[in-house]
Every structure is written in C-alpha cells, then in structure tokens.
Amino acid sequence: MKIFSAAQIREADAFTIAHEPVSSTDLMGRAAGKCADWLMEHYPPSHPFYIFCGKGNNGGDGLVIAQKLLDEGYVVTVCLLEYGSKASEDYIYYYRRLQQQYAGRIREIADVTGFPELPPSAVIVDAIFGTGLNKPIEGWLAGVIHKINDQHPRHTIVAIDMPSGLKADTSSRNTPVIQAHHTLSFEFYKLAFLLPENAAVAGQVHILPIGLSPEYITHTSTRYHLTDLDMMRTIYMPRTPFSHKGTYGHALLIAGSRGKMGAAVLSAKACIRVGAGLLSCHIPDCGYDIMQISEPCAMCITDELPDHSAHFHEQADARYKTIGIGPGLGTATATASSLEKLLATYKRPMVIDADALNILSVYPSLLYQVPAGSILTPHPKEFERLFGPSANDVERLELLSKQAVRLQLYILLKGRYTAIGCPDGAVYFNATGNPGMATGGSGDVLTGILTGLLAQDYSPKAAVLLGAWIHGYAGDLAAAHLSQEAMSAADIISNLGSAFMECFY
Ligand SMILES: NC(=O)C1=CN([C@@H]2O[C@H](COP(=O)(O)OP(=O)(O)OC[C@H]3O[C@@H](n4cnc5c(N)ncnc54)[C@H](O)[C@@H]3O)[C@@H](O)[C@H]2O)[C@@H](O)CC1
Ligand SMILES: [K+]
C-alpha cells in the first residue's frame, strides 16, 4: 500500500472530485458516513457521544457524524471549538443542516473552561484537525487537547482521520496531540502512524476506504509504502517440480563465538527453514558440537581459533550463493580484519547483521566495500552507530533512505514497523510482527531468513521484503499460540512453516 503525503491526499481528493465526479460536500458525506457506521457498529446508543469539531473539513466530518448518530437516536453533544478561523465551505453546509434539526445539541466552546463534564461511558470523537494541520496546536486549543487526553483512562477517544495535532508526514515530537484509542483514517495509512515516536497517539488504526480515485492512486508514486499480503504473493516463488538442492543455493553463515553460539544456531535453523538448498556455517572451534547437534541439516567449517572466527575470508568464495554474517560473531580485531578481506573479494549481495555491523561502524570506510544490493539489518542503536543520530523519527527515515541510495544497499531498520530503505530511495514498512519479538535472538532469526532467501535466488529487494514479512508473520503466529511474553526467538522459527502455509499455499 502506498503511503501518501498530506499534499498528495489533497490532490487525490481534488482529482476524485473532478473525475468521478463527486461534489466535495458529497465526498465528505461519504467519508464521514463511513466513520459514523463504524462508530454505530462498535458502540450502542447507550454511549453518549461528545464530538469535538474544528472549523476545517475535519470538523465538517464531525458534523456529518453527529447528524448521522442523532438521526439514529444516539445522545450526542456537538462541541464546536470557536478559535476564530474561517470555517470551510463544506463545514458551513453541514453546520446549517445540523443547526436546523438539532440546534439544542450544539455547544460553542471558546476557551478551556467551556470543556464539558463527561458522564460515564461517554465516547469522545476528535474531529478538531486532520491532514490540514499546518502548525502546532497552541493556546487554549492546546488546553482542550490536554483536557481530552486527561479523559483517556475513563473514556474512549476516537480520532477522525488523524489524532488532532499529529502531522501526517513531519515530526510532531513535543507538541500537543490527541491520544486516541482508535483512529478512523481515510483510504491510506499516514506516515505518522508508523513512527515509534507516535506510539502513544493513534491507538488502533482502522483504514476506511472512501472511494478516492483508483486512477490517481495507481499513477501517483510515493517514497513510502506499507507491505501487505498481496504484495508478498507477487514476490513469493513456489518451488518447481524438477528442482534439486542445487536449485536453492548454497549459503554460508559466518556467526557465533564462545558464549554466543546460540545466535549462530538460531540463524542456521531459520536459514534452513525458509528453504536454502545447502547451508555451511563457519564457526569457531568451540561451536562445533553445539552446531552439529543442534542443526544436523547444516554443515560446519571450524575456524583455526577456538573462541571466535578470524579466517572466514579464506572460505568465502564463489561456491556460495550468498553469505550471512554477524550474529554472535564478536568484534575482535582479527575478526574485523577477516571481514575486511572478505569484503575485498566476495562481491555478491550478502546479509550483514549484529557484530558485523558493529565492526563496520568502527571502520566506516568498509561500508563502501559492501557489495551493492547487500542487506544491512541494524536495530536503532546499531543504525545510530553506523550513520549518526537523528533529531526525530522522520529525520531518521530520511537518513535511512539517503544512505541506502548513497551506498546502493538495502538497509532494514528494525522496529514495530521495520523500515526498509532501498537503493532507489523508496522506503517500505513491514506490516507484520508484535512486541513478543522484542526478545534476544529474533534478529539472528531474521538474518538466517534473509540469507536463506538470497540463496534461493530471490532478488535482494524480494528477499528483504518477503523476509521481514514472513519473520513477523511467524512471530504473530507464535504470539497467538503462546502469548507475546512466553514466545522466544526459537518459536518464530517453529512457526515459519505455518506462516508459509497461511500466506502462500
Ligand atoms: N480525501 C480525504 O481524505 C478526505 C478528507 N476529508 C477531511 O478533511 C480533512 C482535511 O481538511 P482541511 O484541509 O480543511 O484541514 P483540517 O480540517 O485538518 O484543518 C484545517 C483548518 O485548520 C486551520 N489550522 C491548521 N492548523 C491549525 C492550528 N494548529 N491551530 C489552529 N488552526 C489550525 C487551518 O488554517 C484550516 O482552517 C481530513 O483530515 C479529513 O478529515 C473528508 O472530509 C473528505 C475526504
Ligand atoms: K482529528
């Protein structure tokens, strides 16, 4: 799914109005009508509604919702915030209609003392500002936002299109924003919903289709995308009947050190479980029994050193379709030097994670030696060590995209919505996964998955998008069986099979 900017959403709106054609008043009626339907489906008339309206089209949506709920016999109080701006035309149209029929339900609020006392089980609808917000909310309006947020523990707050105060595509850090339980947003995810810094504000996001022009949507390109199952189905490559293990590639995994062999084992298991034809693991001598016993499907090459690896560059040749390097590897100087030599000779796209990333952040010039199309998988701290700090999440995404273009790499920044920067500047957010995956070893599993997919001739872009998806999907299945608390990284691997079955069979 494409993620459009606020400016593009305005264009989509205008394009739909001109080409469907539909009047802007009717488009508002249609969009807000969907919200009213959602509200009535989720809350019976025993819930009194308090609908707070700004004076733009978001406020207009609030007026349409109020009218529909009142027509259906709901108890509604409409709170119009009178902050001096000129009302939009569509707002005025729906205001007149409401005023004619339900004048007694309308209250004007011109400062924070006008904030109503709310009865138990009230539902607050936030229709103050939407995508038209053009500066942080200030003065008594900010006071109203705080008052609404004070109700959060006692009353349900439903935001229309955007929680008011949240900017669609720039940072809203340290500004007043409604903290909604639910956000009913029109047609598209907004970038703001996918940023960790906004975790507290949008609640559950429900995307309501409002019939914006499919022509506009298809033909307009965006930098940001959210992955979905349909996209994965176009990427997934079923195995062919006459194939053999050679068809699915020989991967080399360079991982593990004394005390961190578990990372190597998790990566190896995941690599095999996504279908790599063959897997060899380069591990220090201390890990030999551990790996052979834990994963009999993998072959082992042991380093001359007992506790960490420093000779893997001698192995890394064209026999291997790809290499995954980093989990539990350690950052010893000899390991770093072997990585440098490996990067000088091995030129296929590879997967670089964990300690291999830490080595690159100590020797940043090595970043330029990483083969084009390789996949880096930093978590936010590793990302910062590699590329420096950012003032906010939007800046961090811009940095991600810039570095992916500059280095011609795929950079997968881990998080609730893992963000994948591509060499062409596009950024994809992965839609699967859950907080149960915030546990040691999850990243090692991802490295194994990505390595296994590259081995099978998935393009780097296909591998990184599908890998992130299936990793999160398997994690979601694990959490569904076991709870987010009890699941471990090993459970992600155990659920990879069911994830493939559910998504692709
Ligand atoms: N295509 C769509 O997505 C549709 C959008 N509609 C609604 O239209 C909204 C956008 O409407 P508008 O562009 O009128 O924008 P808003 O309703 O978000 O607000 C714009 C108004 O608020 C003022 N304003 C902005 N920031 C302010 C601040 N911090 N303090 C005080 N005043 C401020 C602006 O000057 C303008 O008057 C969407 O969020 C959605 O709710 C729907 O009605 C129809 C379809
Ligand atoms: K809103």
Automatic annotation (TrEMBL):
Cofactors (names)? K(+); Mg(2+)
Report domain YjeF N-terminal positions: 9-218
The EC number on file is 4.2.1.136, 5.1.99.6
Residues that bind (6S)-NADPHX: 57-61, 130-136, 161, 263, 328, 379, 444
Q: Which reaction does it catalyse?
A: (6R)-NADPHX = (6S)-NADPHX; (6R)-NADHX = (6S)-NADHX; (6S)-NADHX + ADP = AMP + phosphate + NADH + H(+); (6S)-NADPHX + ADP = AMP + phosphate + NADPH + H(+)
**Record keywords, A-Z:** ATP-binding, Isomerase, Lyase, Metal-binding, Multifunctional enzyme, NAD, NADP, Nucleotide-binding, Potassium
- Ranges for domain YjeF C-terminal come to 228-503
List the GO biological process terms.
metabolite repair; nicotinamide nucleotide metabolic process
Taken from the record, one Pfam family name reads Carb_kinase
Entry's Gene Ontology molecular function annotations? ADP-dependent NAD(P)H-hydrate dehydratase activity; ATP binding; metal ion binding; NAD(P)HX epimerase activity
Q: Indicate the quaternary assembly.
A: Homotetramer.
Q: Which NCBIfam families match?
A: yjeF_cterm (TIGR00196), yjeF_nterm (TIGR00197)
| Family membership | In the N-terminal section; belongs to the NnrE/AIBP family.
Question: Which HAMAP family would you find in this protein's record?
Answer: NADHX_dehydratase (MF_01965), NADHX_epimerase (MF_01966)
Q: What is this protein called?
A: Bifunctional NAD(P)H-hydrate repair enzyme
Natural source organism: Chitinophaga flava
Q: Which gene encodes it?
A: nnrE
